Amino acid sequence: MSLALLSAISLMCVDGAMAARPAQQIVLAQAETAAEETASPEDIPVEEVNAAAVKTAEPGADAVSADLREAYDGPLAFEDESDEAVVEKVIAWLEGLDTLKGDFTQIAPSGAVSEGKFYLRRPGFLRFEYEPPAPLLIVANGGMVYVRDEELETTDSYPAGKTPLKFLLQKKIDRDDAEVVAVDRGVDTVAITFASNDEETEGELTVIVDAPDLKLRRWIVRDLQGGITVVTLDKVVYGERLANSLFRAPEAGGRFLDR
Q: How are beta strands 228-238 and 154-159 bridged, if at all?
């Protein structure tokens, strides 16, 4: 399994040349309404799912698009604060997070939709349990990401620092490394896009939080080819103790991928 394929499966896509960031097109309310009315993933043609993924996955997809701002009379999130102040607010909140767990829905760059359970314990620990038919388990610990494929009976691994998801795993976000690419505000959301100044870290991470109460709603990883992986969270529980065993590295038997 190549690192590019491994990364696409595991939310952390790394490959190719950066595509231009698409313009904002929709507001969150429209996206959520469409999601509620959508048939089950297996009933949807891949082309339609992929198109929906691109729209939903745009950095700042929850923000009001430029052409809608003129028609919208109400305030946007933290309207009286500068972008810099909003970034500092969100970073401080992220750095204050301890644990969270819940359900996730993932849309991969191919348009494939998968679901499962996630567990995050900061700093450094992450677990994604995929529901069947996806035979995958992803665990991050000790600065490494392990991807277990039960069907193939393999475990591949690579450094967490090569992916922009490192910003979610760090105890303190490295201000010298984390470049804020965009700050997009919606009616009740803020989306902040981070890129790394470290050339070994490939891609961008957009973190979307509710505003003003700052709850993590979704994150988006854009790889260097412009491929987009969207992870939407649901039924999130904060601050609950998570057992060490959740973050034990899966059985060995795969490869270490460093490029």
A: unpaired
